[in-house]
Amino acid sequence: MTATTRKSPTLYKGVVSSKSGDKTLRVVLNYLTKHPKYGKMMKRRTVAHVHDENNEGQLGDTVQICKCRKMSKTKSWRLVSVLGRA
């Protein structure tokens, strides 16, 4: 019998931009990417709706999140920890 090991989830760091409703945060994930033709570095962002079970996150906090199963139409991330307070 072989034991299968599950890969640890990829963790992302972002800033809470909105506290929308009970147990839900909006987190902005900023990153840099290269323009496909010209090669210039461009700023991009992704807005993630995050499940916050204990309502720990506040506006402006730096948080660590990871992907999870879909919890609603737009919410498919969960809060791992709060790294820094606003």
Mean pLDDT figure = 93
> How many individual β-strands?
5
From the helix content, strand content and strand pairing, which structural class follows?
mainly beta
Span of the ends, CA to CA: 49 Å
Q: Share of helix among residues?
A: under 10%
Residue fraction in strands: over 45%
Low-confidence stretches: none
Q: Using the coordinates shown, work out and report the CATH topology.
A: OB fold (Dihydrolipoamide Acetyltransferase, E2P)
Given this structure, which CATH class is correct? Mainly Beta
The CATH superfamily appears as: Nucleic acid-binding proteins
Outline the biggest β-sheet: 5 strands, mixed, barrel
Biggest sheet, spatial arrangement of strands: 1-2-3-5-4
Radius of gyration of CA atoms, rounded to a whole number: 15 Å
